[in-house]
Amino acid sequence: MRTLAITDFKAHALQVLGQVAETRERVIITRRGKPLAEVIPFSPEAPHPGKLADALVFEKDIVTPLGEDMWDACK
Q1: H helices present in the chain, as ranges
Q2: Domain-by-domain residue ranges, the chain?
Q3: Going by fewer Cβ within 10 Å, which terminus of the chain is more open, N or C?
Q4: What pLDDT score was predicted for residue 65?
């Protein structure tokens, strides 16, 4: 895994992104020697962090189990 200072990344961002896409090697972006961000190659099969669609369970109907009269009482 390669590391790169943020100033160098800013100056050569398109080149770095092209290399990441081609070599599939991750790049750590640092600020004053401390890791700030990670550039990783895109993978359509990999789950995307922060995407809730895969983490939630969708129920068909949340009102029917209560029944109409109980639903009106909850208002």
Answers
A1: 6-11, 13-23, 68-73
A2: 2-73
A3: C
A4: 63
Predicted local confidence at residue 44, as pLDDT: 81
pLDDT digits (tens, 9 = 90+) for 2-57: 999 999 999 999 999 999 999 999 999 999 999 999 999 988 876 666 666 666 67
Exposed/middle/buried for residue 61 (C-beta within 10 Å: 0-12, 13-18, 19+): exposed
Whether the full predicted model's pTM is greater than 0.85, yes or no, is no
H or E stretch covering 27? strand 27-31
Task: Give the Cα separation of 48 and 23 in Å (integer).
Answer: 21
